[in-house]
Amino acid sequence: MKKLCALLLAVMMLTSIVSLSLAEDSKTLTIVAWDANTTGYLTAQKEAYEAAHPGVTIEYIDVSSQDYDTKVAAMLAGGDTSDIFMVKDIPALLNWYEAGYAENLNDYIAAANYDLNGFVGMEVNYKFNDEQVALPFRSDFEILFYNKDLFDEAGVAYPTNDMSWEEYKEKALAIADPSKDIYGTHYHTWLSTAVNYTVADGVNTLVDGEYSDLAYFYQLVQDLEDAEACMAYNEVSAAGLHYSGAFGNGNIAMMPMGYWYVATLITNIENGSYNVKNWGLAAMPTKEDVKAGSTFGNLTGTMINKASANKDLAWDYIAWLSGEEGSKVTASTGNRPAWVSEGVADVMSAVEGFPADEVSKASLLPTYVAIEIPGTALSSQISNILNEEHSAIMTREISIEEGIENMNERVQELLGE
Amino acid sequence: MSQAVTKGKPKKYKMGRLERKNTLIAYSFLAPNFIGFAIFTLIPVILSVVMSFTEWKGGALSSMQWVGGANYASIFSSAKVSAKMGELGFFGGLDYFFSKVDLGIALKNTIFYTVVTVPLSLICAVALALVLNKAVKGAVVFRAILFFPYVASMVAICVCWNFMLMKNGPVNQLFMAFGSTFNKSWTADSTMAMWAIVLVSVWRNMGYYMVIYLAALQGVPRELYEAATVDGANKWKQFLHVTLPQLRPTTFFASIMLIIGCFKIYDTVAIMTNGGPGRATKMLVIYIYQEAFSNFHYGVASAIAMVLLLVVLLVTIIQFSLEDKYSNN
Amino acid sequence: MQTRYAGERRSRFPIGKILIYILLIALSIFTLIPFVWMISASLKLDREVFTFPMKWIPETFHWENYSVIWTKVPMLTYFKNTAIIALCVTLIQTLTSSFAAYAFAKLTFKGRDVLFLCYIGTIAVPWQAYMLPQFILMRSIGLYDRLLAIMVLQAFSAFGVFLMRQFYQNIPSDLCEAARIDGLSEYGIWARIMLPLSTAAIATLVIFTFVGTWNDYMGPMIYLTREENKTIQVGLRRFIQENSSDYHLIMAASVVSLIPVSVVFLALQRYFIEGIATSGLKG
């Protein structure tokens, strides 16, 4: 084992010497990312940064998104010296941090006097033991996409930014027409699109071990399924139906989805592969006792590798990326940056193909965004349990009550250990 | 040479030298493969055995912490299970283990799946090989067709099958024509999801093991059949007394590989059901994958793998000794 | 072949044969239906793929799906890499494992059974469990992001040794004894007796190794990073993810990736007929 470690160290040193000597001529930053070729904002960010910083080249290492955590785990354990790793989900970041791969950014932040206020508090999700180990550059929150043409045809008023879940249900039922294959709404198979809204009140979380609050949302989905106002979970999952094609097909009136779908939608409408033409955005509905415009969301960020030989340059890049300038670049591709300001919101709504109405524009600034699932030592285990019970409930193999009872029992057992 | 080794030992010294020489020759045969095998597979596997007794987050190797049997205690949920045993008796505890604990459920599912899939695949493979070994017209085409499932990419295959097995899909329609009342997507039903995986597995394994049996049938000396015919054995007896015994090493191979393959099933389940609905098709490797790459409990993942290894080794050793017994007869 | 059952009454054949054909055709249909659907889906438009009632024959044939996939990802590079890996692996695997299998099947030596159990044992350990230690080891000897990494990982797998050992056990030991008495060395026995007698087995191993390497996904996914090193399965998955809703294109790509392996199979399967059955005991 010792010999192995020594060998490993030697190789690591060698590679870092090589990359150091390279760095003198022209600086190259390697960033490990997923689906680098098809993710539009990555190219835009690279081009913008390189233009503003002559002599710096950004190189993406492309990893398949589905196996991102697996491959990155191997790369890091093998002593990879890539400078920056994109952060896909918080439990994985927590693991990289605990395994000792994430550079503590506190000193950099202090030295640069970096203003964290633009993140409206979201950056704390990347903070463990008071160490800020990553910065977010994208913050996708759940938002309601709708097909204006279907609403017009059915003579139903467009969704608003202060809608209740009851109103949402009424609209879905009013538009649905099984005989014409028209659905009022669409749920992807994920737990998040179906029931994660419970966390929008700022009190409930998915890691507290108490899930009776999910019943309301499960009941809503099942009512809509029974009325054939949305496709049944069983069919969606068996067909492996992807949400983008589903909404793009043009026979679905509403679909709750992450903000990232805006970019996909605009591109595909532009190149003519979608049937849907006029669409809009509205804030997610809320329960009566929750402030309108509340929703949940998730972060995408960047982490500096402790084994990187260009940490200062890497910091310069991620500070730029997450700050005002980088955020404008990210926004210009139809994505929602984590850094929010009036200037950034203007860029977002000015993107070509973005719906022009005021409601859509106003929906860009939610009143409250809860984190989808907080990063605790147990959150990935908890979400495994929740997903398993979710599939049992949604396939109707067990009742909602049984499913929630299982969730409570299993998660509480885990928390009690 | 093997006689020299096994028979009588009048002069111990001389025999020892010969033995050494034989062993050296044998090692020279093994070396080219074994060196590669040892470096790239055996050592990592041994490391993972060690890992199952440690806690490791994937950091530097020196950050591994020895935790003894803690990982095993946690996957067997031993505290809870023994408490239940005290409360409900031995079988009550066992029932708890197999219906509530992840490892128990995964073991139960995997063993059920293996017990169903292995015989089905073997029978189909042998039958097909026997038929296609004869001069059936179009044998070449049939063989190619039956081997196709193994060649095709799993992702595409599973998408196809999921569609075939959907609520209004062709398979359900066929069954309904025969009076079945089942009207749900197979993968959405706790019972049928498992059968969907069995179906796809047998469909895939069938042609693969058929090829192995076909190759083995080429090695059955024709003289044996001629002798049997002279003795007046009919076709069935020929099969029982000539073909089957001659195929024994192949059956040994096929059954062990099938058992291992079934115990290690991952792709099909991950794509078709991802272990669902609920935990109805959660298999051992799905569980391992979850622990390793979503929870980052590498020690725990290794411990589950060791449970799998032990079960498979047990079965293998039993078969191994059976084979030895038969081939010595 | 036909003389194998020379002593049989021929009169029974027609009924039996017809039954066998019916069974074979039924099984072939069972086997082929998903493929037919795959091909039909690969010629449809995206939104036609999952429509009910399903249409087996597309309204219009969209052959362009097959040209689109070549422009979306560098399939040609992927094909080249996979072919190089698969050929090398097949060569090394077949040679070394038939060599090692001879020792396991026909020689007696100390530690044989334990060593053999080691081989089988490693097959039984899921790769996910030792993936990280293996990766750390490979990286420390500089085998990361090189085609060579996948070659050495695949080439020395225990599978080949096990398969060949079982085939060699079928060959009567008397043959080896006779050859030893004739003064042939063990290497000579392997080259002049075992190899010629096991063409069918070798053909099987070649097919399986080739197919296995061709279809390997996790290995290349973990070990190969640069674009110019990626393989067909990594490309296929990437393609599937990048076009996650375009099932027509996914099916087209899958059909294309099927072709090379099918060619290898068709080319080698004649060895299952022209095998060694007749040379049997003559030595």
What does this 3D model show about the protein?
The complex is a heterotrimer of chains A (about 425), B (about 325) and C (about 280). By secondary structure, chain A is of the alpha/beta class. Helices cover about 45% and strands about 15% of the residues of chain A. In chain A, the strands form 2 sheets. In chain A, strands 1, 2, 3, 6, 7, 8, 9, 10 and 11 form a 9-stranded mixed β-sheet that branches. Chain A has a two-stranded antiparallel ribbon with strand order 4-5. In chain B, helix 4 (about 80-100) packs across helix 5, helix 5 (about 100-135) runs antiparallel to helix 12 (about 250-265) and helix 9 (about 190-220) packs antiparallel against helix 12 (about 250-265). Chain B has helices spanning about 1-5, 10-50, 70-75, 80-100, 100-135, 140-150, 155-165, 170-175, 190-220, 220-230, 235-245, 250-265, 265-270, 285-295, 300-329; strands spanning about 55, 65. Chain B is globular, with a radius of gyration of 25 Å. Chain B has a two-stranded antiparallel sheet. The model of chain C is unreliable at about 1-10 and about 275-283 (pLDDT under 50). The longest helix of chain C is centred in the N-terminal third of the chain and has 32 residues, at about 75-105. Chain C is mainly alpha-helical. The radius of gyration of chain C is 24 Å and the shape is globular. Chain C folds into 2 domains: about 1-60, no CATH class; about 70-280, MetI-like fold (Orthogonal Bundle), CATH 1.10.3720.10.
Which terms would index this structure?
heterotrimer; A: 417 residues; alpha/beta; D-Maltodextrin-Binding Protein, domain 2; 9-stranded mixed beta sheet; two-stranded antiparallel ribbon; 45% helix; globular; C: 283 residues; mainly alpha; MetI-like fold; 2 domains; 13 helices; 70% helix; disordered N terminus
Mean pLDDT of chain C: 81
CATH topology of the largest domain in chain C: MetI-like fold
CATH architecture of the largest domain in chain C: Orthogonal Bundle
**Overall radius of gyration of chain C:** 24 Å
Give the topology, please.
The complex is a heterotrimer of chains A (417), B (329) and C (283).
Chain A: H1 2-25, E1 27-34, H2 40-52, E2 56-63, H3 68-77, E3 84-87, H4 90-98, H5 106-112, E4 127-128, E5 131-132, E6 135-147, H6 148-154, H7 165-175, E7 183-185, H8 191-195, H9 215-226, H10 233-238, H11 243-248, E8 252-258, H12 261-270, E9 279-282, E10 294-304, H13 311-322, H14 324-332, H15 342-349, H16 358-362, E11 368-371, H17 379-394, H18 400-416
Parallel strand pairs in A: 1-2, 1-3, 7-8, 10-11
Antiparallel strand pairs in A: 3-10, 4-5, 6-8, 6-9, 6-10
Helix pairs in contact in A: 2-14, 13-14, 14-15, 17-18
Chain B: H1 2-6, H2 12-51, E1 54-55, E2 65-66, H3 70-75, H4 78-100, H5 102-133, H6 139-151, H7 154-164, H8 170-177, H9 190-218, H10 222-230, H11 235-246, H12 248-263, H13 267-272, H14 284-293, H15 298-328
Antiparallel strand pairs in B: 1-2
Helix pairs in contact in B: 4-5, 5-9, 5-12, 6-9, 9-12, 12-15, 14-15
Chain C: H1 13-42, H2 64-72, H3 75-106, H4 112-124, H5 127-140, H6 147-155, H7 158-170, H8 173-181, H9 186-197, H10 199-215, H11 218-223, H12 232-242, H13 247-268
Helix pairs in contact in C: 1-13, 2-13, 3-6, 3-7, 3-10, 3-12, 4-7, 7-10, 10-13, 12-13
